[in-house]
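Question (not urgent): is this output format expected?
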Amino acid sequence: MRLSLGASVYDPTDPVGRLLFNVLAMVAEFEADLIRSRTREGMRVAKAKGHLRGKQPKLNPRQEAHLVELLHSGQYSTAEIGDLFGVARSTVYRAVVRSKTAAAGRTASTKPAQPAVRKVGDGDGSSATDTYRPRHGAPCELPSKNGGRSRGRTVRPDSVPQTAR
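Got this back:
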């Protein structure tokens, strides 16, 4: 590869050509840094003026609430609801998550949070084999009184399942 400027031909393998290519690379890097700094400054100014808001949502809050209501009614699948509102299934799922977090935010201020597991035993707490049922429904045994050093594997509702080694 060679660079021809006017009558001169510069080869990157000789010292003069290497110098010229390094100078050109430094100038290009300087220009890229200037562009980046100007872009950041322009974004800072736009944000201060309130013009930098990002991508606008496809659905307004009223439409999103109606979407979640239709999904919870059980009459439509997520794909059908996505077609009805003109959005992808992933948007439907995100709307459901947003509605759950909004509902959790409203209820967190009014009542204490529920525990991650619910007791299913006789209720007196005396038995080492009382079972707890996590919110996802699978019952699990509590660890025995020997400090969790039992031979059997204890299933904890918040832990990630371990794979075989």
